[in-house]
Design goal:
Blueprint (H helix, E strand, L loop, with lengths): L3 H6 L3 H6 L5 H10 L6 H8 L4 E6 L4 H17 L2 E6 L4 H4 L12 E5 L5 E5 L4 H11 L10 H18 L1 H16 L3
Parallel strand pairs: 1-2
Antiparallel strand pairs: 1-3, 3-4
Protein name: Thioredoxin family protein
InterPro entries: Thioredoxin-like_sf
Organism: Siminovitchia fortis
Length: 184
């Protein structure tokens, strides 16, 4: 599948960040405070591949708040051009990248100069999933009258933790690096 057209449809990081509302403070905090570790050999290797990224994300998504800033910092170090596609407006592409049959984001599709997928990352690291799952286990059933309120409370706690704990940022970076190291 040629992903060049999807890339061309995407928002620039600047436009995406301008559209932030729900998790703006957390996103900007992570973006302003995360720097990839010194790793010139890795950065040089990735620069040489001339990769670009099609990112399926949404400004309201807590996992995107955590992972998109990390991706953007990695992209800055490796000269990867990033374009972000709002998931809900691009379900035909999203449905090709389901996680356990669900539309979970973010999904980062790394493409070469010809628009061919060379790697995919997302939606979250195993450690992030374990953390979120631990908080989800106390939620009432979805048909419970208190579900929406409890879910919103959980999202606030999780988003605050993502913002305040740099180990989540580092774990995401290391996972993305591992994915990119497998690109031939």
């Amino acid at each position: 599948m040629n992903l060049n057209n999807w890339f061309e449809k995407g928002l620039t990081p600047e436009k995406y960040m301008g559209d932030l509302e729900y998790h703006k403070d957390g996103f900007l905090h992570i973006y302003e405070n995360f720097q990839p570790p010194a790793d010139d050999e890795f950065f040089s290797k990735i620069k040489g591949k001339n990769l670009r990224v099609v990112a399926l994300a949404e400004v309201w998504c807590g996992h995107c708040m955590l992972n998109v800033p990390v991706l953007l910092r990695l992209a800055e170090k490796t000269d990867m051009d990033v374009r972000l596609l709002p998931r809900d407006q691009h379900l035909d592409l999203m449905d090709q990248y389901l996680t356990n049959g669900k539309r979970v984001i973010p999904i980062f599709i790394f493409i070469d100069e010809n628009g061919n997928q060379v790697a995919k990352w997302g939606p979250i690291t195993e450690s992030t999933k374990a953390f979120v799952d631990e908080h989800k286990k106390d939620l009432p059933p979805k048909d419970d009258d208190s579900y929406d309120e409890k879910f919103k409370e959980m999202v606030k706690i999780v988003a605050k933790t993502f913002m305040e704990k740099p180990n989540f940022w580092s774990n995401s970076y290391e996972s993305m690096k591992e994915t990119l190291n497998e690109v031939k």
